[in-house]
Design a protein that fits this description.
Shape: globular
Strand order of the largest sheet: 5-2-1-9-20
Strand content: 15-25%
Helix content: 40-55%
CATH topology of one domain: FAD/NAD(P)-binding domain
Radius of gyration: 38 Å
Amino acid sequence: MALRQLVRARPLLARPAIAPRSAFLAPRLSASFTSTPKRLDVPPQAYQIPPSEGPIPPKNQKPKPSFSARASKFAKTFGRVTLVVLLTATGAFIYVTQSQNSPPDQLPVDTKKPTLVVLGSGWGATSFLKSLDTEEFNVVVISPRNYFLFTPLLPSVTVGTLEPRSIIQPTRYITRHKKRKVDVYEAEAQEVDPVKKTVTFQDLSDVRGAAGSVTIPYDYLVYAVGCENQTFGIKGVNEHACFLKELSDADKIRTKLLDCIETAAFRDQPQDEVDRLMHMVVVGGGPTGVEYAGELHDFLIDDLKKWYPEVAERLRITLIEALPNVLPAFSKQLIQYTESTFAENKIDVLTRTMVKDVKESAVVVQDANKQIREIPYGLLVWATGNTSREITRDLMSKLSSVQTQRRGLLVDDYLNLLGAEGVYAVGDCTATSYAPTAQVASQQGIYLAGIFQKLGQKAKFERQLSELRATAAAPEEIEATVKKLNRAAKLTPFHYSHQGSLAYIGSEKAIADLPLFNGNVASGGGAAMLFWRSAYVSTLYSVRNRTLVLADWLKVKIFGR
C-alpha cells in the first residue's frame, strides 16, 4: 500500500529509470507485513527526462500536423474545388450560349389558327413575346426597329460606358425560339381599323423594295407602340435639341458631345465660345435626365481631365426641371441626397424653371422668380416626358365615344381596349392609374401572355370537347374536359406589383427606393450602385447581353471610355 502511494506521488511527466527486479522484491514483501512504509533509495536524477526525449504520446495516436502542412492541404483542396467550379461554369456558359444561338425547327403557319398581330418591340411587346406560347396562334410582329432596346442603360451609351450592341436584343432572337413560326416585319404601322380588324403598315427604311403599303387582317391585336417625345409645342426643340429615347439618339448625343469638346479645344477659339461649347444642358429632372447628368460627370472626372486637360475644367452641367424638385417619384430623403450629390459634383440644378424657347446656341427659360433669361449651351438634351403617337391619336378618334382620355388609350382591368373587340393595349400608349414606366409595361406584357395562354387552352379544349361528343365518348371523359374548359375560361384582372425605383446619380453612387412590407426602404451610395448594377444585369433578356454589359464595365475600369 505504501509503495502505491509513493508511486502516485511521483510527477506525472516523470518516467523513473527501471531498476533490476531483485532490487524491488524485498521492499514489496516487507511492505505487505509492516505498517510503516520504507522509502526507496532512488536518486532524484532518475525522475528527470532527458532533453532529447519528450512526453511519450499515447499508443495509436498520430502526431498533430504542423500549421504549414495544414495550410498546404487547404490550398490544394481549395484549388481543386475552384478548378472544378470554373470548368463547370465554363461548360454551362458554352452550352447555354450555343443552344441559344442554335434555334430549333418551328411548326409552320396553320391557317386554321387565329392570327395574332403585335405592334411594337418595346418593353410591353417584348415581355409579351418572350412569355407567349405560339402553338395556338399565327403571330405577326410589326415594328420600326427589329430589336428590343434596354432603355434604363441608354444614358451609359451616350458617353461610351456601354457599347450600343450590348443593350439591344434582336426580336428574331426571341421569335425564333418559339414553337410555331413568327413573322417579323421591320415596318411602321400606319393605321389600325378596329371595325374591319385590319392593320396597315409600310416599310420606311432607307432601302426599300417594290412593295409599298401592306394591309393584313387580324383576329387579335396587341397594341404596344409606345409614345414619342413630348416637346410641349416649344419652338426649336425638334430642330436643336437631342432626345434620349432611341439608340440613334444616344449615338447622336455621343457624336455631338465629342464635336463640342474638339471644337472647344480648337486653336485660337474665343474664351466665351469655349464656355458655351463646354456647357451641357439637360432639360428634364426624371430618371433619364438625372442619369445622363451623372454619366456625363463621370466622363469628365475619369476621362476628360486625362485627355483634354486644356478644356476639361471648363465643362459645366446644368439640369433644368419645371417642378419643385428632381425625381418626383422618389422619396424626399433620396431627392435631397441626389441634390446634395449634384451640388458636390458641381452640377447646377435649376428647379421651378420652365423652357420657353430653344435657339441654336441658347435656351430661353423662365426661372423661379419669373425672370426670362438665356442660357448658352453647346449640347442640349431633352428628356421631359412622352406623348401619344399619331397612329394612337387616329385610333382614339375612331373610338371617340369611349376613348375620352387625351393622355392615352383606355383599357379595362384585363387590358382590353375599350370599344374594340379583340384588341389589347399595353405600355406607355395606355392611360392607366400606373406610371408609364418600363416596369409597368413589362408586367402588363407578361400578364397578357398568360391571358393568351388561357385563350389557347380554351380553344384546344373546345376542339377536344367537340371530338369527344362526336365520337360518343364516356361521360366521365367529357365531364373532365368541361372542367378544364371552365378553368381556362376564368381570367383574373391585372394587378401591378411595384418592385422599387432605381437611378444612377454619378460618382459611383445610385439611389434605390424599394418597397418593404407596408413601407419603403430608401438607400443611396456605393452599395445602392452595386444593387443598381446587379438588378439591371439580372433584368437583361439574355446571357449575351449580360456578358457584354459586364465586359463593357470591366473595359471602362481598365482602359477608360
